[in-house]
Amino acid sequence: MKYMMFVCTDTEPETDESRIPTIEAWVAENDAAGRRVEGSVLGAAAAATTVRVRGGELLLSDGPFAETKEVIVGFDILECADLDEAIEVARAHPMAHGGRLELRPFVDLA
């Protein structure tokens, strides 16, 4: 099953950095195991453009739509047997210590 894992900042990061694994090791391990399909770091939230259409009119806004202290800074697409495996993959990600990870299953619309 495929999962989108949003990598987000958090206002309460882990303070003991000695426990945090490296992103290079996490990527290498999950790429080798075939669990990481794709992933990337995203540009700054300030570089975002929000697109909406209301009453047939195009509305553009600079930056993220919501005012929030936590922002999405990256993503990974995971291929896992089930949610339990996806949770274990997320648990080992460095941002599980310094930020937060949101897992969402892909929905098959066919």
From TrEMBL:
Family note: Belongs to the YciI family.
Protein name (database record): Transcription initiation protein
Pfam family for this entry, one: YCII
Domain YCII-related, first and last residues per copy: 1-106
Organism of origin: Actinoplanes nipponensis
InterPro entries according to UniProt: Dimeric_a/b-barrel, YCII
PANTHER family, per database record: BLL7171 PROTEIN, BLL7171 PROTEIN-RELATED
Xref: Gene3D superfamilies: Dimeric alpha+beta barrel (3.30.70.1060)
